[in-house]
Specification:
heterodimer, A: 163 residues, alpha+beta, Alpha-Beta Plaits, two-stranded antiparallel ribbon, 20% helix, 12% strand, globular, B: 639 residues, Aldehyde Ferredoxin Oxidoreductase,  A, domain 1, Aldehyde Ferredoxin Oxidoreductase Protein, subunit A, domain 2, Aldehyde Ferredoxin Oxidoreductase Protein, subunit A, domain 3, 3 domains, 6-stranded mixed sheet, 17 strands
């Protein structure tokens, strides 16, 4: 599935598509973190993921945190080498050649959606799987959906009446 | 050596001398016992000799997880924690979900073995390869929630995973549990008591290593197949809505809901405390364990009444029905409060409710006087007494001190009520009347950890459909709940299956209950994850091997057929009303069938040399004295 998807990716798919997060629906299962790390490396490691579920068990809160495509993006402003960038109508990206791994972007992001990598390397930020976010596809509770179109992978099923 | 599926390392921590040792996971152990409960049971057999005092420093507390945990395999998130049990004196073992086990894998460990005893309270912080033993004097005496919060604040990291014990464990209550992520309770058989006896307040884990599988694409294909099967299952939405509490209503309709301490099988207030009522009136949100697509845990809030403001997760069926029907209480708010209190103090809800409901029956029978019970009014369902008694037990105060050793010990020390002490091998029984669920009943009687359903969980019996029995075991009665025939085959099969699922550390909901993970599918997943070539037969044999080594552990401690029994109420008194009216539990013929099916000595219930050798457990046969010339029942002399 993932292999096929990677072959099909194209620049056209990189258009901005905001993901809507409904934290009241999030069960905290962390499927999103798992599929995100798997897509990148074919292994499983939530600390490689570009989406993280913030959990507060005592209050029953689970909140997926990922890049929200904010109109103003502080990481772009603070990046000393202009490696953190966004072209018109596209998602943010980090230019590997210019990034110095200073991680100013990690602290600057107001939603906390830029993550420090495990080892030295590029900061982790959602690239929206080039337009087909696997986390949205996998989310068991539809806590993650597209803001512009809920039906990309079929409309969220309505919950049937329990007999 | 590179490991797939497994993290590949076993961690040993000796708290007496603060020694930390790591060793590579043994290949034989992986192949023969798969993981989790299998690893723990093999090592307990090898390292915990006969007669050891469970609260001595020599007892070992083992956390283990399985080869699929940390991956995206649906529901693979669990861990077993095992030691010799201070409550039962035999094999102690408990299992919980949440996020702790996956973190353990990411930190790089399949099993963590804790030995010795620290001179002062400590907690263990496992941060990938760095293992430190930290002072916990500021945590001692704190409840489960407080402890978790202080640890996160101290470490300045909310992403760590914790497994902690509460004040009940510190006070030596013999059925204290270990609580992961606040509410994921490994509560049966007193593993928290063992942990606190080592002066260990918490195990905190942070891991950042990947879990790799041998064949990623194949593995994801199998995982997605299981995932889809779960979504399409008719039990999916009821589980999301109610979790296990959904069975309270049907169990009551079958006349099997243990009410007022098993004196009845029908609770007249069931509709007021049902899973449906809980979902409608209290539930706010569905929550899930790690890597699970069935969010069956429910976050609730009490909005009005005496317990307004209370919020938390759960309860599941056992705690819900234990703090309602079993104690004769029709107030759902009180049940939530009782469950919350028990969790925060860190005790087993089932055993606690048994101790309380047993006291209530003793009181109703006139055996237990009000003076002896610290002046408490122990009439059925008395909210104040229930909540007070929970606190007293946790503090080992007054009458609570008597109950803190479990119902078997309490009845013996008070010299009354032993025949109605609802335990098997010292472990208090769960919330289902065996007289009308005979497969479950047999499962309780022979379970290697005592009176519990999760060693067999023959869920299929609830279908009451003879076609399933005919198809699977060639005995139609095997899946008819009021028949005793074929139950030996049923329990044998389901025990092996449960052992495999506990070794893989997957949730039984998708195996025994929803039946989407049969042996063949499990074999495919194991092969793709670990690279070990295994088929359905080999996987089933792992289950059989685990059950046999656990039984051998019990045999070495003196357990034989005579102990595979249950309280006389079930054997002699027919159910008085409801849809299982007139039924009793036919123990002996079921045991005959079960031992024969297991290939054990039918007279003694001891595994035979032939069976143990067939499973590659020759050393076990020698150790328990069934080997060759020493083919005598060593236990006969000590019973």
């Amino acid at each position: 599935m993932v292999g096929e998807f990677l072959r099909l990716q194209s620049v056209v798919d990189e258009m901005v598509r905001q993901i809507r997060v409904n934290k009241d629906k999030c069960s905290g299962c962390r499927y999103c973190e798992l599929i995100c790390s798997y897509r990148e490396s074919l292994w499983f490691n939530p600390r490689d993921s570009k989406i993280r579920v913030a959990k507060y068990d005592e209050r029953g809160i689970d909140e997926p945190v990922l890049c929200r495509q904010c109109a103003t993006c502080p990481p772009i402003d603070v990046c000393p080498t202009n490696a953190f960038q966004r072209s018109e109508g596209r998602v943010v990206r980090i230019d590997a050649e210019n990034c110095t791994s200073c991680y100013l972007c990690v602290d600057a992001c107001t939603v906390g959606a830029v993550f420090r990598p495990r080892a030295q390397g590029l900061p982790l930020v959602c690239d929206f799987c080039h337009g087909k976010p696997l986390c949205v596809e996998k989310c068991p509770t539809r806590a993650l959906t597209f803001a512009d179109e809920d039906a990309r992978f079929g409309a969220a099923p309505s919950e049937p009446e329990v007999p | 050596m590179k490991h797939y599926g497994y993290a590949g390392t076993v961690l040993r921590i000796d708290l007496s001398n603060k020694r930390v040792a790591k060793s590579e996971l043994e290949k034989d152990l992986a192949k023969g016992f798969l993981g989790g409960r299998g690893f723990n049971s093999r090592r307990l057999f090898d390292e915990i000799g006969r007669g050891l005092d469970p609260l001595s420093p020599e007892n070992k507390l083992m956390f283990a997880t399985g080869p699929l945990v940390g991956t995206m395999f649906p529901t693979a998130c669990r861990f077993n924690v095992s030691a010799k049990s201070p409550l039962t004196g035999i094999l102690g073992d408990s299992n919980a979900g949440g996020h702790f086990a996956a973190e353990m894998k990411y930190a790089g460990y399949d099993q963590i073995i804790i030995e010795g005893r620290s001179p002062k309270p400590v907690y263990i912080f496992v941060d990938d390869d760095t293992v430190s033993i930290e002072d916990a004097s500021h945590l001692w005496g704190r409840n489960v929630y407080e402890t978790d919060k202080i640890l996160r604040d101290d470490l300045k990291d909310n992403t760590v995973r914790t497994a902690v014990v509460g004040p009940a464990a510190e006070n030596g209550v013999k059925y204290a549990g270990i609580f992961a992520d606040l509410m994921r309770a490994a509560a049966r058989t007193g593993m928290g008591t063992v942990m606190a006896s080592k002066r260990l307040k918490a195990v905190v884990i942070r891991g950042s290593k990947p879990v790799e599988v041998a064949e990623p694409e194949q593995f994801m294909r199998i995982s997605e197949e299981i995932e889809e099967a779960i979504y399409e299952h008719p039990q999916y939405w009821p589980r999301v809505k109610m979790g296990t509490t959904r069975i309270l209503t049907p169990v009551n309709e079958m006349g099997l809901l243990p009410t007022r301490h098993f004196t009845e099988g029908v609770f007249d207030h069931a509709s007021e405390v049902s899973g449906e009522r809980l979902a409608e009136s209290y539930n706010l949100k569905s929550r899930a364990c790690f890597s699970c697509n069935i969010p069956c845990s429910r976050f609730y809030a009490v909005q009005e009444g005496k317990f307004a403001g209370l919020e938390g997760e759960g309860p599941e069926y056992e705690a819900l029905s234990a703090f309602t029907a079993r104690v004769g209480n029709a107030d759902l708010g009180l049940a939530l409060k009782a469950n919350d209190t028990v969790n925060k103090l860190g005790m087993d809800a089932l055993t606690t409710a048994e101790c309380i409901s047993w006291s209530m029956e003793c009181c109703a029978e006139g055996w237990l006087s009000k003076e002896k019970a610290d002046g408490l009014d122990l009439s059925w369902g008395n909210a104040e007494a229930i909540l007070l008694l929970i606190e007293k037990i946790a503090k080992r105060e007054g009458f609570g001190n008597v109950l803190a050793d479990g119902v078997r010990a309490a009845s013996r020390s008070l010299c009354f009520g032993e025949e109605v002490a609802m335990h098997i091998k010292g472990l208090e029984m769960i919330q289902a009347d065996p007289r009308g669920l005979k497969g479950y009943g047999l499962g309780f009687a022979v379970a290697t950890r005592g009176g519990d359903h999760l060693r067999a969980e023959p869920f299929i019996e609830l279908s009451d459909d003879p076609r399933r029995g005919a198809e699977l075991f060639s005995v139609p009665e095997a899946t008819q709940r009021l028949q005793w025939k074929g139950k030996g085959k049923l329990v044998n099969y389901f025990e092996n299956w449960c052992a495999v699922i506990d070794a893989l550390e997957v949730c039984k909901n998708i195996a025994e209950n929803m039946e989407v993970l049969p042996f063949a599918k499990a074999a495919e997943a194991i092969s793709a994850a670990t690279g070990l070539e295994m088929d359905a037969v080999a996987v089933a044999q792992v289950g059989e091997r685990i059950v046999n080594i656990e039984r051998s552990f019990l045999v070495r401690e003196g357990i034989t057929r005579k102990d595979d029994t249950m309280p006389t109420r079930f054997l002699r008194e027919p159910l008085r009303s409801g849809n299982s009216k007139g039924s009793i539990f036919e123990l002996e013929p079921m045991l005959d069938e079960y031992y024969a099916e297991r290939g054990w000595d039918v007279r003694t219930g001891v595994p035979t040399e032939q069976k143990l050798k067939e499973l590659g457990l020759d050393d076990v046969a020698r150790e328990i004295g069934v080997s060759e010339s020493r083919n005598v029942d060593r236990r006969a002399s000590c019973s």
